Fold each of these.
Amino acid sequence: MSRDGDGQSARSFPPLPERLPVDVFDSHCHLDIVDTPVQEQLRSARAAGIARIVTIGCDLPSSRFAVNAATEFDDVYAAVAIHPNEATDVSAAVLDDVERLAAHPKVRAIGETGLDYYRDWAPKEDQHRSFRAHIGMAKRTGKALVIHDRDAHDDVLRVLEEEGAPDKVVFHCYSGDARMAEICAEHGYVMSFAGNVTFKNAEPLRDALKTAPLDLLLVETDAPFLTPIPHRGKPNASYLIPHTVRAMAEVKGVEVAELCTAIAANGERVFGPW
C-alpha cells in the first residue's frame, strides 16, 4: 500500500475504459479505502473485464475486512497481514490473530508484509521481525506471500534467502530494476505491476517489465492509489486496470489478449482456482 493518498474521495472517478478481450483480475487492492461501496466496485470491474479481485490487509481491522468481503462476494479473495509501516512492537498475540484469519478458505495470501525504508514509521528491526514472522506464516499455511518492498530491495531478497522463501512469492507494486527482475525470475518470484508503470518517469520499471517473463507477471491497482495514465491524479479502482494492461502489453511487445491470458493463468497458480 502506498500511503500518499491526497483527498481522492473529493475527486470524481475516471470513465470506464474499453473492456479487456480476456478477463484478468486485480491482484492487489484495498477495497476498504476506495470511496465506493464494494458491490459497485465489483460491478464496474466486471464491466471492464476484471473478473476477480484480491483485497489486502495491512493491520487487523483491514485484514478482518478483507476476510468479510471475501466471504460475502464470490469474486473476491483476501490477504491478511501487518504492513511494515505498522510493525512497531507487533506482538505475538497480534500475529496469532493474523494467522487465525489466514485459516479461512477465502484467504489466499499473507500480505502485505515486507520492508519499507522510504518511510520511518516503524524501526527497521521491528519490520524485519514482522517480515520474518509473516514468511513463516505463509509457509505454515501454504498461502502466497505478498511483499511490500519500498527502497529495501537487497534486504528483502536477503531475508527471503535466509528464511527460505515460500513456494509462492509476489512482489506487489514491483519497484525494482531490470537486474532485480532477473533475480526474481531466477527464484520464481512473481512480479505484479501497478499503474505507475505507465508514468512518464518510470522507464526503469518498464525495463524491468521487459525483462520479466510472461509466466511471472501479474497486474494490480493498489487502489485507490497509483492511478494509471491517462488518469493519474484521479482516484483509482479495479476497473481501470485495462489502461495498465494495455501499456504493459506494448512494453512486452505482445498482444493484449496474450498478456491477459498469461496474467489469468499466473493468478490461478498463485492464488488458487476460483
Amino acid sequence: MKALHFGAGNIGRGFIGKLLADAKVQVVFADVNQTVLDALNARGEYQVHVVGEQSHVDTVSHVSAVNSTSQDVVALIATVDLVTTAVGPQILERIAGTVAQGLIKRHDAGTVLPLNIIACENMVRGTSQLKQHVLKALPEQYHAWVEEHVGFVDSAVDRIVPPAEAGTQDPLAVTVETFSEWIVDKTQFKGQPPAIAGMELTDNLMAFVERKLFTLNTGHAITAYLGQYAGHKTIRDAILDPAIRQVVKGAMEESGAVLINRYGFEPDKHAAYINKILQRFENPYLHDDVERVGRQPLRKLSAGDRLIKPLRGTLDYGLRHDNLAKGTAAAMHYHSEQDPQAREWAELLHKSGPRAALAQVSGLEEDSEVVEQVVSLYNAMQ
C-alpha cells in the first residue's frame, strides 16, 4: 500500500506519517520546505521522540519526499491508494488544485481502484471542506467519476506535537506526546478501509470531533489565553497555576455538559477524559509556548470553533457557561507580533470596539446577553 501525505512538518512526521509507516505503508511526504525534503530523501528515515512517563525513540523508515508544487505530486495522486494531509486548515484550499490535477490524471489513465483522501486537520469535517475546494477546481465532466471512485473521509485527530526545541540543528527532529487518537468516518470510504493500527473507525464521527474540539481544543486554547494574560510562557506553567486550572477545568466541564446532552456521553467517562487532558497539559517533557497555542485568534473565536461553538451549545441547552465566557474574554486579549491574525484582531478591536468586534468574528448577536457577559469580563481584565 502506498500513501501520499501532504505536510512534512512536525505533525505530519510525528503523527500521521508515523502511524502510516508503522503500518508498513510506503509513505511519500509532499511539502515546500526543501531542507526537510532533502533530509528525508537523503536518509529515508527519521526519529520520533515520544515523551511521557515511558519515553522512547522510534525510527520511522522507508519514507521519501517530493515538492508539493511539482508535477511529481500530480503523478503520485494518479497511482497511490491513500492521500492524507496535515498542512493546517488555511492550506487545504491551496492544495486542492494539485489534488484535482492528480484526479484528472488518475481518471485519464483509466484507474478504477478506489482512492481515499483523509484531511487530518484541527477542524470540523476538514476533508468535506477539501472536497468542495477540489470539486470547484475540477471540470464538471470528472465529478461523477470522483463520486464513484474517490472517498473523502472526515477524521478527528488528537496528539500534542510542539515545535522543535530552540537550538535543534536536525531538520527532522520531532517530539510528540505518548497519547494519540485518529478517528475516521468509516461510512465515507470507497472500498475496504485500510487496516492501520492507531486509526479507529466510527459511524458517529461528529460525536468524537466535537468531544475533541470541546475538550482538548477548548481547554488548550483557554490555558494559552489565560496563561499569556497571567505572564506564563508555557502551557505547563499555565495549567499549574491554580486559578487558571480552575477556569480551564470548569470550561471543559461546561462544554462537556453540552456533549452529554447532545451525544449521550457517560458523565463519569467524560470526567475521566477531562482529567486525562489536564494531565497531558502538565507533561513536563513537552515545552509548548502559550503564544504558539493561542495563535490565529480570528479562527478560534469564529462560530464553528473551540470557544464559540461550545458556548453556543450551552445556550441551546440552557446550561452554565461562566468559565467559557472567561476563556473567550481572555482570547480577546491575546496578542502576538508574529501572528497576522492577532494583528488583524487588534486592529478590529481598536476600530470597532470589543462588542462589535466579538459579534463580527463570532456570529453572536451584538446585543445578546452572552456578548454583554464576555465584554464585561474583557473590560474587567483591562
Amino acid sequence: MPSHYYLIIPASGVGARMHSEKDGLDWQAKIPKQYLKLDNGLTILDQTLKTLLSINQIKGCVIAIADKDHLFNKSAFNNHPKLLTTVIGGKERVHSVLNALKALTNFAKDDDWVLVHDSARPCVKASEIINLMNQLKHHVTGGLLATKVVDTIKQANNNIVNITIDRSNLWQAQTPQIYRFGVLLKALNTAIKAGINITDEASAIEHLGLKSILVKSSKSNIKITNPEDLALANFYLTQHQKK
C-alpha cells in the first residue's frame, strides 16, 4: 500500500515577540499572532491552512491549539473535511507536535508521512511543498525545506565579535518538515525523555542519530515573528498571486 500524508500545525503559541510593548501595537495585544488578519482578509493561520490543505496528497490534518482558544471556532477551516481533530497544545512546540502525533495514531501507519508546518508561515508555496514530498518519497526518514545562509555570520559575546563563521555549509531551517510517522514519534519521545532542547523536528531526528535531507526553498517562506514581518508577508502573498 502507498504511504499517506498527514499534516500537523502547532498553533497554540501567543507570539510574545509580536506583542512587545515597545512596538506600540495595542490593537494586537489580545490576539495570538496566528489569528491576525492579512491584507487578503484571511488570518495567518487560515492562509497557511488554505495552501496546505489544497494539496491533494495530504489526507488529513491535526491542529494543536491553546487550551482556552475560542478563535479557531471562527476559522473557515474549522469544519474542513481534512481536519481530523484538534488537540490541546503543550508547554513547548515539541509537546504540541507530540500531542498531535498521538491523535494521529488512530489514522497513520508507521511508514506514513507527517508534515509539520509552522502556523505563522503563511507564504509557503504549495509547489515547494509538493517538491519536498516528491524528493523524499523514497527516503526512510525524511527532511525539510531550507535556504542557504547568504549573510556573513558572526559569533559574538556581549555584542563583541569573537569569530566569523564559515557560511558555506550553513542552512536556515524552514517548515514543512516531513518525517515518517513512526520515526518522528520515536524521535520526539526519546528527546523529551532525555531532556534535550528541541526547537524543531529535525533536531529530534538528529538526537536519534538519523539523517535529514535538506530541500532548497525560497526566501519568501518567512515565519511571522515581529510586526514588520506582517507587511513582508502581505507583499509576498501579493507577488505569489500575480504569478
Amino acid sequence: MLVVQDHPTTAAEPQDLLGQAALAGVLIGHYQAVQLRQLAAYAAATEGDEFACLEVATQLHLSDRAAQRRLKFARTVVERLPQTLAALDQGWIEEYKAQLIADAVAELSDDHALAVEAQVLDKAGQQTPTQLRNALARVVLAVDPEGAEERRTQRVRGRRVDAYPTEPGMAALTIHHTAEHIATAHAVIADRARALKALGNEPRTLQHIEADIALDLLFGTDTGSNRVVEVHLTMPAPGTAAAHPAEVDGLPVTAQAARELAAEATSWRWLRTDPHTGAVVDLTAPSYTPPQWLKTFVQVRDRTCRYPGCTRRARRCDVDHRIPWPTGATCDANCQCLCRRHHRAKHDGGWQVRTLGRDRLEWTSPLGFTHVVEPEPVTAPSEWDPDPPPF
C-alpha cells in the first residue's frame, strides 16, 4: 500500500519532499480513474435522460455544461481508450493528459483512436502537456491522413479572430487559422523583433517588441515588410507514403498543406535525412562559434530546447557545446539547442547533462534526480529509398 505523509516535517530533505509529492500524484491518478469508471457507468445507465447530468453537476459541484463534458470524457476514456485509463489508474499519467488524448481522438474511428493511443502513451508520462499535444497532433495526422485533410478543410471555414479581456486594463487578440499560416506569421513577427533588438538602445524586452510589431503589422505602420523570413518546413519527399505528416516550425500540418506552402516558397535549403531513422548526418566546424549552416542544421534537428519538458522553439535558442570547446568539437554530435534559461541552468545552476548514445540525453538535477530526453526524428522512419529533392 502506498503511504504519503500528510504533513511534511521540517527535517525532511528536499528530494524526499518531491518524492512524496510525486507519490501523491500516483494516488490522485488512481482515484480519478475510479471516479471516471463510476461516471461512465452512470452515463451508460442513464443514457437518453436529458436531466441525468444535473445529478452529476450538483453532486460534484459543477456547472451543467461542465458535468456534461465530464460524463462525455468518462465514457470516452473508459469505452474507447482502455490503456489510457489503465495508465491513469496506475498513476503513470495525470488526468489532464488523459483529457488531451481523449480530445485528440474525438473525431476518429475506434480503430484509429486505439492506434493513436498506442503510439503516444509510452512517452506521455514523461512529457509536458505541450509536448504531448504536439505528439498527438503528429500521430493523428499520420494515422488518419485523409480524415485529417478533410477536417483541415472544414476547420479553415471556421477561421476567426477573437478578442477577450485578460488582466484589468489588458486584453488578448487570438487568430485561429491553419498551422502553416500561424507558423509563418509568428516567424515574421519574431524575425523583425530580433532584428530591431539587435540594433541596440532598445529598452523593450523581446516579448514587448513582438507584441508591438504584431500591432504595427495590423495597423499597417510596420516598416520591415521587405525582409526575407525563413520558416523550417519538414515534409515527405517524393515516393513516401501520404500518411507521413509534415511540420512548419514544429507545428504539425497535413502533407497537402505542406505541399501548398512549398509551392509558395521562393528558395530552398534542403537537408536530407536518413529514411530509416529520421536522423540527419554529422557536420563539423573548426571554430567555437557554429557557422550559420551548422546552426541551422542543429536547429532543424533539435526542433526545441533539449532540456526536459522545454518546448521553446530551437530557432530561438542558443547552440550549446555539450562538452566545452575546444575539448569538444563544434559539430552536430556535440551541439544542442538550449533556451537561455536552461543554458544558464547547465552552466551556473548545477544541472549536468551527458549523452546516452547519439542525441539521447540524461540530465541530472542538483538534488540528484535524473531525466532522460529522447531524440525526436525530424522525419518519420520509413522503408523507401529517397529520391532527389523536388526543387
